[in-house]
Amino acid sequence: MPPGFPAFLRDTLQMQRPIFHRTLSIVSSQRSNMSLRWILLVVFWLVSLALTWGVASHSVVPHLAETEAQLRQSRQIQASQTHQIQKLQQRQINLEISDQISRAANVDIQSLLAERDEQIAALRADVAFYERLVGATAQRKGLNTHSIEFVRKPSGVWDYNVVLTQNLNRGAISQGQLRFSVDGVRVGKLTTISWNDLHQKTDVPGQPYSFRYFQQLQGSVMLPLDFTPQRVKISLVGQGMSVTQTFDWKLAANSIGE
Fold first, then answer.
1. Which InterPro entries match (predicted)?
2. What CATH fold (topology level) applies to the domain 144-248?
3. Model's pTM, two decimal places?
């Protein structure tokens, strides 16, 4: 064999040597029955098979191992990328939930701020109203009915609005009950419609009040259809004291009690 001849080919040829000798012996013994040409073709065919098998074994096996390694690496990369995708998906879900919570909280805060703004505006209006009632130039008074207003509804019911004030003792709380009656003319006679008659009930309790500076009381009463009102008499009964004031019916709206 020449130097550098592959060892696996040398081993293959050595393995095929007995077959080659056996074939030659067959050729020698049966030379009369078989053509030498066909025998040599068979021998060369067998040798080519052996060489092909050897070359394939030498070249394919290393590539197969390399392919398996690449396949394992690809699977590892795929698993890593799948894990990263799952983490990103979970992060996106968390961000969406956080955004929804933030939006809901923002809506609640805006609603709360709007409610607080309304309350502050109402308080400022009350303070401005009270300052007009009992400002620095106003006369100091104790419990007092500042005004009373009546508004007739289409049903015949009269809605009323009474404003009570006190600026004599600004730290005290005034508590008690309000009642009023209406004097007028009915069938040509002077008539008084009492608190009970105004409500068309018996033993009607007074309307309670409790305030430090001022309070508005509202309600509804009924007047007879044939009754012409002239005056309203308001009675405030509180803690060890009572106040009675009279208002002209025609000037009942924003009028000052006598």
1. DUF6776
2. Immunoglobulin-like (2.60.40)
3. 0.51
